[in-house]
């Protein structure tokens, strides 16, 4: 049942993504719009929009109220990937099994496409209809903070290259770089909840923090052990850049132990919910037990 529901939300999101991205008239040489569509519609797991819908489901919020929030978090994610792949950052040539945006187009177009997607994300939240201004502001605050934290995390990621930060420092960086947007994807539904107990809000926050960190640690493990063809991106790029990652700092085995701890913490946090949170439980498993 939960898998069917996730697929339904994934399809719903895919249809709306196609609609909100700028169309390219036949014969047009609009490289900016082409690059935006290339980056967003090239695949991806769509975990962040699924978290929006799953959290909303747990809170009893209709999907119609969450569509734009789901779009917004995915556009922020895609913008971050475009910029992360740039030569000035990680200098990657492959993403989701195809050439990165700056390789398929050029660096300037890639920068501008990322900028445009970020701006679109916030505009989607502002232009929501049948949503109170109070709810719009709450959603904007959640996403804005996450976008800023993500940038701070990327800056720390660069600063830690070649260093050996302590576990707390490393995990703080990972929480900012990756966990912040995952947390926002989980918590943005609370902006539309008519009534929400403090215990459920704290439980969602704890779930999101745990699963966001576990996701990034697993991602770092896959960079060491994964198959480039399966993952759709280069394997071993973290080591080439001398990145500070969990497996590099503490080893693969301890990384597995840590992700298991975090997964258990996420599931325990959801004890505040009944079966309405089963989609969140399934997503937690998908995000930790994965090969891509």
Sheet with most strands: 2 strands, antiparallel
The helicity comes to 55-70%
The CATH architecture can be given as Orthogonal Bundle
Return the CATH class: Mainly Alpha
What is the ordering of alpha helices and beta strands?
HHHHEEHHHHHHHHHH
- Here the CATH topology equals Farnesyl Diphosphate Synthase
Query: What's the arrangement of strands in the largest beta sheet?
Result: 1-2
Q: At the fourth CATH level, what is the homologous superfamily?
A: Farnesyl Diphosphate Synthase
By DSSP, the count of extended strands is 2
Number of helices: 14
The share of residues in extended strands comes to: under 5%
> How far from one another are the termini?
23 Å
Mean pLDDT: 94
Question: What is the domain total for the residues?
Answer: 1
Low-confidence stretches: none
The outline comes out as: globular
Rg, rounded, reads 18 Å
């Amino acid at each position: 049942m939960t898998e069917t529901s996730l697929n339904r939300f994934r399809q719903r999101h895919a249809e709306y993504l196609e609609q909100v991205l700028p169309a390219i008239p036949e014969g047009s040489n609009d490289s900016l719009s082409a690059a935006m569509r290339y980056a967003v519609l090239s695949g991806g797991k769509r975990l962040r929009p699924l978290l929006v819908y799953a959290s909303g489901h747990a809170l009893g919020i209709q999907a119609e109220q969450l569509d734009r929030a789901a779009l917004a978090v995915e556009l922020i994610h895609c913008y971050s990937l475009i910029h992360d792949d740039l030569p000035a950052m990680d200098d990657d040539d492959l993403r989701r099994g195809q050439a990165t945006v700056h390789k398929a187009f050029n660096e300037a177009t890639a920068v501008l496409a990322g900028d445009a997607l970020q701006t679109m994300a916030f505009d989607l939240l502002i232009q929501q209809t049948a949503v109170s201004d109070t709810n719009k502001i709450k959603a904007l605050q959640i996403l804005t903070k996450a976008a800023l934290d993500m940038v701070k995390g990327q800056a720390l990621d660069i600063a830690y290259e070649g260093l050996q930060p302590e576990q707390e420092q490393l995990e703080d960086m990972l929480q900012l770089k990756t966990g912040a947007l995952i947390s926002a994807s989980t918590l943005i539904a609370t902006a539309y909840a008519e009534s929400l107990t403090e215990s459920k809000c704290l439980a969602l926050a704890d779930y999101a923090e745990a699963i966001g960190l576990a996701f990034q640690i697993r991602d770092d493990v896959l960079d060491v052990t994964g198959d480039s063809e399966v993952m759709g991106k280069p394997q071993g790029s973290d080591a080439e850049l001398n990145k500070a990652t969990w497996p590099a700092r503490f080893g693969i085995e301890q990384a597995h132990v840590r992700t298991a701890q975090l997964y258990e913490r996420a599931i325990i946090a959801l004890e505040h919910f009944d079966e309405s949170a089963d989609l969140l439980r399934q997503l937690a498993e998908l995000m930790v037990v994965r090969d891509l």
